[in-house]
Design brief:
single chain, about 25 residues
Length: about 25
Amino acid sequence: MFFYDFILMFLSSLLLVICILISV
């Protein structure tokens, strides 16, 4: 459960970075 939560957090942060890169 902890590992799944870690992956979800990692993916959400990665998605945020991608959105920022696209907008720039």
